[in-house]
Amino acid sequence: MVNETSSKWRLLDQSCDSVFQNLSIEEAIARCYPRSSIPNPTVRLWVNPRSVVLGRFQDAASEVDTRFCEQNKIELARRFTGGGAVYHDAGNLNFTVVSGQNGVDSVGLHESRLSIVVNALLALGMENLFVSGNSVFHRERKVAGSAAAFGNGFALWHSSILVSTDIRVLEQVLAPSRRMRETHFIRSRWHPVTTVQEAVGKSVSINEVEKRLVESIQEVLNVELVVDRLRSDEAAMFQNLYEVKYSRVDWNRNGRWEERERAG
Question: Which residues share a beta bridge with 8?
């Protein structure tokens, strides 16, 4: 059992130019976590190019304006965690924590991790924040959402924070998610949204939010973050997952893939 109260956690500030590679890294870190000889919890901060990311059990046609995406060169991808569809661009910061399960359930995980986000946003000057379910709201408007996955020996939680995201594009891309439609797939829960920048009334950079998140993690969890990079087993797993899963249309559009283990 990994002790989450370990005084030193890994910090990966690593983004790829491809949404598919970024999502491959997420799953690779989680799947390699139980195999590590030194499985300290890992924090990752990362940014995606313009893309829509579906939850694991969602139907693309029910959630995304795929024609608009094609016309505007917005990629459509699928993550391995649940939850609803989200729009990412350069004004959106993603924040991931991979740790041991330690007996925590999804509710407790969301409460613990979202408290870090709230603390960071308060430090940036935001007010009137509250947590509901797996999201953070500012005056009834969503500013951050999260999703989680539990596996054999790991718990992965990641959050998407709207820093200066183009809300007009977000609303267009996710327009189908607002419509009632009979389907057996998981539907997104639509909420009006805002950005950190809009809420505080001034320009806010991704770097500023990253800095506040790092400070918040260390303060809330009483840990030290140590800058690190992908280990060799994580890099091999990442490449394998990218090749056989996340680069494939059948996974991203339909949620189907054939697992072929070639890494570690």
Answer: 224
